[in-house]
Amino acid sequence: MQKTVETVVKGAPGAPSDPSEHTPNHVGKPIHRVDGQLKVTGKATFSAEFQLEYVAYGALVYSSIARGRIDSIDQSAAASAPGVLGIVTTKMRPRCTLHSCPAPEVWLPATYR
């Protein structure tokens, strides 16, 4: 099998005589990066550093018991926490089929959009 593979590689048009000897043209040469100078001097601004207005963040809460069944959710502590805009649970979502699922605009209350 090894001899067959070597024959195919050597016989391929335009193939180098030994693939391990072939080096691309960019190896060992410097690459100009548009933001490189800003990053190394510490002047670059990253997306996490921007403060945006009117942004809401979400958090997912999972069961602490693997393969556990959640019978009910007490939302009172989350609802009374400062800054909470709303709580979305699976009870609010519609049942989807393989080929149809309504958009959130249809089933999500307007106060959460």
Topology of this protein?
Blueprint: H1 2-11, H2 36-41, H3 76-80, H4 104-107
Kindly describe this structure.
The chain is mainly alpha-helical. It has a domain at 55-113. Helix content is 22%, strand content 0%. The protein contains four helices and no strands. The chain has helices spanning 2-11, 36-41, 76-80, 104-107. The protein is elongated.
Key traits:
4 helices, mainly alpha, 113 residues
Oligomer: single chain
Q: Structural class, from helix and strand content?
A: mainly alpha
Fraction of residues in β-strands: under 5%
Determine Rg (CA atoms, Å): 29 Å
Strand segment tally: 0
- The general outline is elongated
- Helix and strand sequence: HHHH
Query: What is the number of helices?
Result: 4
What is the residue-averaged pLDDT?
76
What summary fits the major beta sheet?
A: none
- Uncertain ranges: none
Proportion of residues in helical segments: 10-25%
Termini separation (Å)? 62 Å
